[in-house]
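Z., the sequence and structure:
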Amino acid sequence: MTFVALTTAPCHGQANVEKALVGKWEGQFTAEVGDTRRGRGRTSTEDPRHLRTLVIGAIREQGGKWIAEGARYGETGKGLGKVDLTVEVAGQQVTIHFTTGAGNPVKLTLVKENELAGTITVKSGAGSVFRQMQLKKIE
């Protein structure tokens, strides 16, 4: 009998974390459409207003912590704003955290070599709503 160990993000060591994260990422977050309070809503990813771009310029390790430099985020096709992005590496799992210019926290985990998935917490007058977010590395 042979056992094979599988990991969700084969990343460890400075070179691998840098290679995995540095670049341009594009994707979208989901949004509820319709009257979701009465169970008649649906999830939509087709709205171009939900398309997002994340650019990570550089990643380096300093004092046991990972620091991202030159990170920018925003609506795809529009201006990107600077974000302070933190990187957590726990074993084989790589997770990034940042807050958008609108004050919405984002948490994404490297789930494949070229894919980040997680949540954006969208704040509104009625409170906060968690939305699924997925980005794919394009450059």
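DSSP finds one helix and 13 strands in the chain. The chain has one domain: 14-32+42-137.

Let me know what you think.
H.
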